[in-house]
Write a structure and sequence with these properties.
Blueprint (H helix, E strand, L loop, with lengths): L1 H10 L3 E6 L5 E12 L2 E6 L4 E6 L3 E6 L9
Antiparallel strand pairs: 1-2, 1-5, 2-3, 3-4
Protein name: WYL domain-containing protein
């Protein structure tokens, strides 16, 4: 998990994460990590279209972004 977070930070590539909010809601976010600060991850969130701060302990999983296949008719 840490490897993908670091790769997003150094290469500015998006990753997907499953996150547990303070309200105990699960969300799937596509983010680009901007800064690592101890127990927090500062990242651009494509869902909210702004930079957000995420608690590392609430990150349940990290994965590469899945690319959608576009089929022509």
């Amino acid at each position: 998990m840490q490897l993908l977070i670091n790769k997003s930070l150094t290469e500015q590539i998006p990753i997907e994460m499953i996150y547990l909010s303070e309200k105990n809601q699960f969300t799937q976010r596509k983010i680009v990590v901007k800064q690592l600060d101890g127990e927090y991850i500062r990242a651009y969130c494509f869902l909210r279209r702004q930079t957000r701060v995420f608690k590392r302990k609430n990150v349940l999983s990290i994965m590469p972004v899945r690319h959608e296949i576009v089929r022509s008719s």
